[in-house]
Amino acid sequence: GSSTHTTNFDQDSDGLWDYEEEILGTDVYYNDSDGDTVSDGDEINQYLLDPLVSDIDRDTDEDGISNKDEIDIYYSNVENPDTDFDGLSDWDEINIYGTNLLSSDTDEDGLSDDYEVLYDFLDPNNPDDALQDYDQDNLSNLDERSWGCDPGNPDTDDDGLLDGDEVKRYFTNPLMSDADADYDGDGLTNVDEVDIHETDPSNPDSDGDGYDDGVEVKNGSDPLDENSIPTDKSSFYFLGLVLVVLVLGVIFRKHKR
Question: Is the pTM of this model over 0.70?
Answer without folding.
Answer: no
